[in-house]
Amino acid sequence: MDTQVAQNKTRETPVDQSNRKKVVEIRDLHIGFGDRKVLDGINLDLYDGENLVILGRSGSGKSVLIKCMVGLLKPDSGSVKVLGYDVASLSPKDLNELRKQVGFSFQLSALYDSMTVRENLEFPIRRNLGVDKKEELDKMTKKALEDVDLIHTIDQKPVELSGGMKKRVGIARTLILQPKLMLYDEPTAGLDPVTSMELNQLIMEVRKIYKTSSIIITHDISCARQTADRIIALFDGKNKFEGTFAELKAIEAPELRGFFDYFNE
Fold first, then answer.
1. Are residues 60 and 190 in the same domain?
2. 29: in domain
3. Which residues touch 36 (CB under 8 Å, ≥6 apart)?
4. Whose CA is closest to 167, among 147, 184, 143, 151?
5. For residues 58 and 5, is the Cβ–Cβ distance under 8 A?
6. Number of domains in the chain
7. Are residues 198 and 213 in the same domain?
8. pTM attached to this predicted model
9. Which residues does 241 contact at the CB level (< 8 Å), separation at least 6?
10. Is 191 exposed, middle or buried (0-12, 13-18, 19+ CB in 10 A)?
11. Which of 58, 76, 60 is nearest to 68 (CA)?
């Protein structure tokens, strides 16, 4: 692995990950499209209860990486293990079972415009859990919306919501299935600074309430600062730098300076 691990001078002892369960384990992952190599030997571990940020510029392969984790893309080589499953070897049935345990927060929310917020949330309950009783549907839907502070939108259509509200509803829809792993794809993209901060706080609340492990894909350094336990910086298809926010900020590397030089604490 060619990852550069920063040394944190302010931390008295390093975090000991040896006894923590691995939720995601990726080894020597390669994937390309035509002549373009997107991921070039990625190695990654996500531990139980951890928020891991994958930081990189647009087009660096961040979203491709999480699509490999849920079998939406097949790598050219390497191994991807998620929640104990070897993703590449899964049958369609087993892949579907894995996906039920993974919450995917899409960059554009992926809500059905023709449905109300209530109907958007009921859809995965009916399809994946087989729940059809009105009382139970109502209870589960309201609980998820209360957890993202949007219960008042329950009978609105997505077109009536702001961008930040749509993203919150999208997160609520994933929480319905009680995921063990959350994947956030550019959660703050297109949002103003105040709404971005609120969404980052929600990511932290989701981990606390639902006991999730999370991978957060972003190029937003403020998002990384607010949500990450650990950061992997992705450049040229490789995870070149790894550490806490403070550790990466201390590295005098041109690639990282492009993110940190404009960050105001």
1. yes
2. yes
3. none
4. 184
5. no
6. 2
7. yes
8. 0.85
9. 3, 4, 5, 6, 231, 232, 233, 235, 248, 251, 253, 255, 256
10. buried
11. 76
Rounded-to-integer distance, Cα 171 and Cα 105, Å:
6
The residues, ordered by sequence, that sit 6+ positions from 258 with a Cβ below 8 Å of its Cβ are 57
* Domain end position, chosen among 151, 178, 205: 178
One digit per residue, the tens of pLDDT, for the chain of length 265 reads 444 444 333 333 444 555 778 999 999 999 998 888 899 999 999 999 999 999 988 777 888 898 899 999 999 999 999 999 999 999 999 998 898 899 888 776 678 888 999 999 988 887 767 766 788 888 888 999 999 999 999 999 999 999 889 989 999 988 888 899 999 989 998 889 999 999 999 999 999 999 999 999 998 999 999 999 999 999 888 888 999 999 998 888 888 888 887 655 5
CATH of the domain at 63: 3.40.50.300
Token pair belonging to 98: 């894995």
Parent domain of 147: 113-178
Closest residue by Cα to residue 46 from 66, 29, 16, 22: 22
Largest Cα–Cα distance in the chain?
58
Flag whether 2 is in a domain. Answer: no
